[in-house]
Amino acid sequence: MNNKTQYISEEGLVKLRADLEELVSVRRQEIAQRIHDAKEHGDLAENAEYEDAKNEQAFVEGSIQRLEALIKNATVIDGTHGTDHVQIGSTVKVDGTDGKEVFTIVGSTEASPGEGRISNESPVGRALLGKHKGDAVVVHVPAGDFSYKILEIS
What confidence tens digit (pLDDT) does each residue in 59-93 have? Predict the structure, then answer.
């Protein structure tokens, strides 16, 4: 399992813990009951219900392991950070080739580019980290280079 530090907001950590609790307390029992019921239907070699339940059990157990590792390696992003340079948790307003955009730098666990939440590990996130208001930033991606000017950090 990956032991890399995972940056996450306090709200994100609460959600991960709730998801883990749901899997452990509810889903595990539901699947165990499905497996039990399927076993009562006879020959397991030709029992699609049993196979389906076992596959779901493997998926849920994998999800539990992943969530436990994420929580174990989580570092909560401090919500009270300075605005002198871009860091994880910063919201950055930039002006680029596509006009003005706003990005919030988050850990990879909470990244959602469609919502403007970009990972600190993404090309744009890496390029912005440590930069100051007024800095010009060039982002190198396979599709070509993008230029941004940092207008505001909050």
Answer: 999 999 999 999 999 888 876 666 789 999 899 99
Instruction: Show which of 48, 76, 104 is a domain's final residue.
Output: 76
Q: Are residues 103 and 68 in the same domain?
A: no
Q: What DSSP letter does each residue of 76-127 carry, written as one string?
A: EPPSS--SSS--TT-EEEEEETTEEEEEEEE-GGG-BGGGTEEETTSHHHHH
Question: 114 is in which domain, residue-wise?
Answer: 91-153
CATH number, domain of 15, equals 1.10.287.180
Report yes or no: 129 and 7 within 8 Å, Cβ to Cβ.
no
When mean pLDDT is compared across 50-59, 85-94, 139-148, the lowest value belongs to 139-148
| C-alpha–C-alpha distance, residues 66 and 132, integer Å | 35
Q: Considering its fold, how many domains does the chain have in total? A: 2
